[in-house]
Specification:
Helix content: 25-40%
Structural class: alpha/beta
Number of strands: 11
Order of helices and strands: EHEEEHHEHEHEHEHEHEHEH
Distance between the termini: 13 Å
């Protein structure tokens, strides 16, 4: 049974672990990052915005009830199915579900709302292309940072105990910050043997680039930035 390290934060880590078990893999949950809520003044989240954009389910989950109440009547443009589901559960009345690609979402909003203002619920750590595409189309973006992503430190002893001192066959990377942390982890002298032959599976090329070039490491990039595509790669792992 192939041993697969899951590095994403909770609650996604446990959900991925269940999917891996059902597919016949042995998941090892080691979140390398965690998300924490940021304080937001609900009085300043709307401005002249006529819509809301969300590219991360965490941005909705960590938003306070007061922030959601201020925005719930506006149409919410969600990047994909899971983010749309989180938005509906949180209380948005009208949710438009995207294909799962943030750049495609930016393009569709730019076409629908040229020259208008939107509120963007987001994390403090984020990829800038979404906002850049909208601003290039003269869509005004009011970024409301509802959460931050922080590294989770582990001692060598903690990790070796979790791994039962056995090698890891594959690691799943869902963010650039986790990828950078994973690269440093694999280079620790006490852990090099456990990760010596580990194959890396990244959700996107940007995340793979954050992991960097490591001799002997096979890096597989999902053809689409979603978990289904990532796990499909894992199923045909050589």
């Amino acid at each position: 049974m192939l041993r697969v390290l899951v590095t994403r934060p909770e609650p996604g880590a446990s959900r991925t672990a269940r999917r891996l078990q059902q597919a016949g893999f042995q998941p090892i949950v080691l979140p390398l990052t965690e998300t924490v809520a940021l304080p937001v003044d609900a009085e300043f989240v709307t401005g002249d915005a006529i819509a809301v954009a969300v590219t991360s389910a965490n941005a909705v989950r960590h938003a306070s009830n007061e922030v959601i109440a201020a925005l719930a009547a506006l149409p919410c443009h969600a990047v994909g199915a899971r983010t749309a589901e989180a938005a509906r559960k949180k209380g948005f009345f009208s949710v438009l579900e995207g294909s799962g690609d943030a750049e495609a979402l930016a393009d569709s909003i730019a076409m629908a709302l040229p020259g208008k203002e939107i509120t963007y619920l987001c994390g403090r750590v984020r990829f800038p292309v979404f906002e850049q595409r909208l601003e290039a189309a003269e869509v005004q973006v009011r970024a409301v940072e509802t959460y931050d992503t922080l590294p989770v430190p582990y001692s060598d002893e903690t990790i070796l105990a979790l791994l039962s001192s056995q090698p890891v066959d594959a690691v799943l990377l869902y963010s650039a910050k986790a990828a950078a942390a994973m690269q440093l982890l694999a280079k620790r002298p006490a852990l090099q043997e456990a990760f010596e032959k580990t194959q890396v599976f990244a959700l996107s090329a940007r995340i793979a680039a954050a992991f960097g070039d490591s001799p002997g490491k096979a890096i597989h990039v999902a053809p689409q930035p979603d978990e289904e595509a990532l796990l499909a790669l894992l199923r045909v792992m050589p």
